[in-house]
Amino acid sequence: MSNTSSSTGSLADSLPNRLGGSMRERSRSDKDLSSSLSKNNGGFRSFMQRISPRKSTLNDQTFVPPPPSQLGGTAPPSTDEDGLDQSVQLQKIIIKDLGEIADKSQSELSIIRGELDSARSQIESQLSSIQRIEELQDSLTAATTESARLQKQNVLLKEENDHLTDINSVLDDRVEALCKELSYYKDTSIATILYKIKSGISPSGIECVKTLEDKQQLLAGATMLYVQEFNDNVLFKVVIYLRSTLGWKLFINQLRGQYESLKYYINYCKMTKNYDELKRLYREIRNPLEEGLAMVSQMCEESDPDLHKYNLYNCTLFFDQYSHLSWYKDVLDEYARTRR
């Protein structure tokens, strides 16, 4: 009996401790779970609301041990078998309740863990979405900046294109004017060349006159202008051009065909005191008097006494060749005697 009472007493003492320890562990795990859930977003508060009833249920199901009077030595006397049966029944009830509590706690813990994993997945998905949104915002900012740069570049290109269009239009007008001017300058007809010389247009295109026939027509037109309009500018340029491009014989023959041009060239040589050219011309047209007079003029222009005397001697010999010019020879001899 004493053994039964002692075992019953020890079981009664140990049950509150065990139940208290298990409840303290349960309460600690609930607090840890609550603290871990409270760190998440406000959506997890629903988990705490779901846990609270369970906690109250556990408190409701907490085993309250019978008073010591029922388990201790003060209990009404009973047989050893009744005490043993009561202890066994009590232990079975406690074990059953603890098993049910453990099963419910385990299933609830599994549910909470599942919800926690789901919430963690949702949080990770939201964080990934937020990161993706930030990346998209950065991309959008970069795209906006690039679009602004491209738009500015497009404006600059448009302005440059308009400027180039204006330049192209000006160049087209200039090219058209140059083409007309070039076409005008390429006109190498005799009438056009004479008109350009008369109008002072340069270049006149006189260099394009190459053939002897064209040069004859050019001299004839210049001589006509000289006779009709007394415009010696055209005739002067034509005669000088023919003198530089034709041989002496051909040049004199061209002048002989246009008597007014010949007279003009003779006067030109006299004005420029080109006596060598003048003597050569008179010799070619067989005019000894004028040739001799040109020699006398050249002698008079000579400032060196020795050369002057030498030219005077040559003039005397020249006139001595022609009997009808002996008077000029006598005059030169008289001049030579006065020089002595």
The domain tally reads 2
Low-confidence stretches: 1-23, 36-48, 50-64, 68-75
Oligomeric state: single chain
Gyration radius, in Å = 71 Å
- Work out the helix count: 13
Shape assignment: rod-shaped
Cα distance, first to last residue?
A: 200 Å
Topology:
Blueprint: H1 2-38, H2 45-60, H3 68-71, H4 80-186, H5 190-199, H6 212-229, H7 232-245, H8 248-257, H9 259-271, H10 275-284, H11 288-301, H12 305-320, H13 326-339
Describe the structure.
This protein has helices spanning 2-38, 45-60, 68-71, 80-186, 190-199, 212-229, 232-245, 248-257, 259-271, 275-284, 288-301, 305-320, 326-339. The protein is mostly helical and 340 residues long. The protein has two domains: 2-66 and 78-142; 205-339, no CATH class. Helix 5 (190-199) crosses helix 6. The chain starts with a helix and ends with a helix.
Q: Which labels suit this protein?
A:
340 residues, mainly alpha, 13 helices, 0% strand, rod-shaped, disordered N terminus
Structure at a glance:
The chain is mainly alpha-helical.
